[in-house]
Amino acid sequence: MKRFTLVTVGTCLAFSIFACGTADTEPGDDGTAEENGDMMEENNGEMTEDEDADTADDMTDEVTGDEWYENLAFSNFDLEVEYAEGEYEAEYEYNNGNPDADIEDTREGQNVDTEGQHALDELEPILGDIELSADMSDQEMIDSVLEAFSLDSDYQEFDLEIDFFDKGKVEVEDK
Q1: The total number of structural domains that make up the chain
Q2: At 68, is the secondary structure helix, strand, or coil?
Q3: Is 38 exposed, middle or buried (0-12, 13-18, 19+ CB in 10 A)?
Q4: Residue 43 belongs to a domain
Q5: Rounded to whole angstroms, how far apart are CA atoms 63 and 149?
Q6: Which of 28, 53, 56, 24 is CA-nearest to residue 40?
Q7: 125 — alpha (psi -120 to 50), left (phi > 0) or beta?
Q8: Of the candidates 18, 40, 109, 157, which lies 20 to 30 Å from 78 by C-alpha distance?
Q9: Residue range(s) defining the domain that contains residue 117
Q10: The whole model's pTM is what?
Q11: Phi, psi (5° rounding) for residue 123?
C-alpha cells in the first residue's frame, strides 16, 4: 500500500513540475506554441515590457498630439433627448486643441452631471466610433446617435446640432 501511495504522489509531483514549467511560450493563433520574447515576469513592482510599451505609446500620443478627438469630423456636438421621465444631454466642443465635454442624465430619477475629463473619457468610445456625416438624412443621424449612445427611441423630443469641419453646421430636430 505504501508503494502505491509513493508512486501516486511521485507521479502527481512530476506532472505538477512539468505543468508549471518556465518555458517562455504561449499558444499561437493556430494552437501551436510560439516564443514570446515580449513577456517578462513582474519583479518587485517593476513594469513588464508590455506595460512599458503601452506607456511609451501614450507618451508618443502626447508628443505627436494624436488624440482621439483630433480624428473626429466635427468640432461641436450638442445632443438633447427628452423623455417622459427626464432628459439626456451630451455636449462636446473642440476649440484650438482644447476639448471640453459635459453630460447630464436625469432619466428615470437619475441626476448625473459629468464634466471635463470624466465626460471626455465617457464620450471617447462613443464619439470615436460613431459614423456621422453632413450628407446623412435626419432619420439616419437620429438612428446612429440613438444606437451609439444606447438611448431609447421612445423620446418626446430629439435635438442634435453638429458643426462639421468640412460641411458646416447641421441641425436635426424631431418632436
Answers
A1: 1
A2: helix
A3: exposed
A4: no
A5: 31
A6: 24
A7: alpha
A8: 109
A9: 68-174
A10: 0.61
A11: -85, -20
Contacts of 20 (CB under 8 A, 6+ apart): none
Task: With respect to residue 111, please indicate whether it lies within any of the assigned structural domains.
Answer: yes
Per DSSP, the three-state class of 172 is strand
CB 36 within 8 A of CB 25: yes
Does any domain span residue 57?
Answer: no
Amino acid at 98: N
- Cα–Cα distance, 146 to 141 (Å, whole number): 8
Arithmetic mean of pLDDT, 47-60:
46
Task: Classify residue 25: in a domain, yes or no.
Answer: no
Interval 128-149: pLDDT, tens: 899 898 899 999 999 999 999 9
Bridge partners of residue 100, in order along the sequence? 93
Give residue 80's identity as a one-letter amino acid code. Answer: E
Report H helices in the chain: 2-19, 49-64, 116-129, 138-148
Q: Write out the three cell numbers for 119.
A: 465626460
Q: Roughly what angle, to the nearest 10 degrees, separates helices 116-129 and 138-148? A: 120
